[in-house]
Amino acid sequence: MLTYNNLTECHLNIAVNYRGFSSVDLHLDLIFSLSNLHQKFIRSLSVICYGLDMNGESQKIFIETSISAYWKMGLICCPALNNENVIFNRHGLRHIFWKRNARRTINDQIRRFKLLPYAKDIILSSTEFTKYHQEPFQSILGGKVVQFWTFTKKLNAKTIHIIIRQLGHGQKHFFSIMD
Hints:
The protein is α+β, with helices and mostly antiparallel strands. The chain has helices at 4-17, 24-32, 39-48, 57-73, 90-97, 106-115, 117-125, and strands at residues 75-78, 84-87, 98-99, 102-103, 131-137, 144-155, 158-167, 173-178.
């Protein structure tokens, strides 16, 4: 009988076996698009498939630890958005690794993960956003509006920008962080 644990082990083994292939990026994209699977299952897969072509063991450990910390952020109440919750979900994590359909460099991924600990404080302490825009989204949402809010905070000679996104009338979620 195939249980949840067996299914997870099976898919983790498949993910590990992909390490030798150059098409790992396609596998990573698949992981982030498996929205019908249990969130824990997606998290387990994403931890092992973040960037299988990395050079340094320290980079690998840093990114793995950062992914784990990302999932622990969960929901954060945002005063600037009428105290609505902002969720840290697969969309934001995918955006750390990808920009549209292009894979970000390892250095860019690491830079964004290093900024991530500031995200919670910026979202919690912001009473207003610095920029808002919306645009039509013609893909799977069927022409609904996508909204973006940008929060900016200067910390230790760095200006950090966080983008919160909402697809249609869905939940607001963390989308990006940059300096």
